[in-house]
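Question: what's this shape?

___
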Amino acid sequence: MADLSEMKSTAADQTGLALTVYNNDLALVRDTRKLRLPKGMSRLAFADVSARMRPETARLYGDLQVLEQNFDFDLLSPRKLLEKYVGRDIGLVRVHPQTGEEKYERATLLSVAENQVVFRFGNRIETGGPNTPWRFVFDDVPANLRDRPTLTMLVSNPDEAERQLELAYLTQGLSWEADYVATLAEDKMDLTAWVTLHNTSGATYREARLQLLAGDVNQVREPKLERADRAVMMAAPSAPMEREELFEYHLYTLARPTTIADQQTKQVLLLQAEGAPVQREYRVDAGGSYGAFRADKQELNAQVYLRFKNERPALGEPLPAGVMRFYQRDRAGATQFIGEQRIEHTPEGRELELQVGNAFDITATRRQTGFRKLYGEERESSWEVEVFNAKAEPVQVQVLAHFPGEWKVIEENLHHELQSASTARWTVGVPAKGKTVLSYKVWMR
C-alpha cells in the first residue's frame, strides 16, 4: 500500500460548510466537498481542516469506506524541515562574504538544537548558528510534513465516480459568548445582545452556515491553551438570529452565511429590546455578628444593583451567558460606561440582580453597641448602622446582616424581612442630604 496514489482535497473543493459553535471552546465542523476518487483503495488528503481538530471525533460520510486515518498537523517551516532531515544528507550553499561566489557541498545533518546545527563533512564536524552564511538545499518535502493541517485517510471506493463527501469533526479553538449593551434612561433600558465569536483554531471558515448552541454540554476535560491576540470584526447588522429548542439547550441559527477568519473575533447581532423596565437598588452589606465585643467602627460602601425581569413585552427571550455592560447618557447626550456584570444562562421569566458598582454619595458606618453571653452557646449582640445620603433627593437603602446558626431579632427600630435563612434585610429610608440610624439586637445560638 506504500505506493498508493494520494488524492489531495483543499477548501477549493468545498460545496458546503457548517459550524455549530458551543460556549466552552468547542465546535462541530461539517465540511462538504465534491471529489472524484479512483476505484479501490487510495489515500485521501483532506487539507484545510482545523489545526486543533480532535481527530478521534472525525467521521467521513459518503459512499465509501474509511480504513485508516491520520491527522497531520506538523506544518511546514524551515525549522521543521531541518528537524525532519536529521540523519540525512542535505545540500549547503556557502556564499563568500567578499566576492559573493557560491559554493555547493553535501553534508549529513547530525543535530538541530537551540538554534544550532551540527554537520558532518567527510572526516570533519562543523557547527553553525543563525548567522552562519549557509543556505540549505533539501531534496524533497517529507511525506508527513504538510503546508496546512491535513487529515489523511486510507479509503476503499466501490467505483470511480464524483461524490459528495462530508467530513464532520469536533475542534477546539472556536467558542462564543453573548455580550450585552444596556443603555439606561430613568427606569427603562434599551438592550442589544451581540454574539461574540472567537476563532483560534488555525483555520478560516469561509461562507459557513453558522449555528450557536447555548447551554453547558458535558465534555471530558482537557488542558486549555491560552488565547492568542486576535483581530476584531463586527458583522453587518441584520435581523436577530432564529432560535429553536434542541434537547435541553437553545440553538441559534444565522440566516446568512458568514466567514470567520483564523485569529479573529467576530460579532453578530443576536437580539434587540427597547424600554425594558429596570429598578435601581442601593444595598449595604453590614456583615456578620461576632462571638465577642468589637469596639471599632466599620466604614461601608453602598453597592448599586440593577434589577429587571426577563419577561415580555420588552424582553422574554432566553439570554445566553455573557457580560452585560451598562451605559447612560450625560447632560450633553454623550454615552458613558457605568459598570458591568456577568450573567449566567437566563431563561424567560427569571429576575436578574446585577451589581454594577458602588454609590459615591451613599455610605454607612456600622458599630457594635452591646454584647453579652447567655447560657451555653447563647449570646446577644446589639448594633447600629448609620446610613448617610449626600444626594439631593431621598433614597431607599437595603441593609443586610448575616447570622450563623439559630438567631432571632429581638429588638429593632425598623422592621426586618428574611432575605434567606441566615440573612435579615431592612429597608432604610434616608432623607436628602441626611442620615438614618438603624439599630437592632439579635439573639444567637
In short: The first strand starts at residue 6 and ends at 9. The chain has four domains: 6-22+29-74+145-171, 78-137, 192-275, 279-310+350-444. The helical segments are 78-84.
